[in-house]
Design brief:
Layout: H1 21-52, H2 56-89
Helix pairs in contact: 1-2
Amino acid sequence: MSHHHHDHSPSSASAEGGLTETEKILKLLHHWIHHNHDHAANYSDWARRVEATGFSEAAQRLDAAAEMTHAITREFEAAEAAIRRQVQDE
């Protein structure tokens, strides 16, 4: 069984040196959005594998976790859009 290991930080501190706080927040949201897409796809892939072994309830729960992850991603996208709108209006 493979394990998913990765760094949860969007970048090193030195790479963010010249960014404003707003730019840092937008960068972080962008990272979370893409990170969650990867996780949701992984959950769905595993749901199919689990279902193929006959564990249909477990597969349904993994599919539910994927959908919850998509819902969280939509909130991150809405937060990003809200910041961009507010910055644009300033």
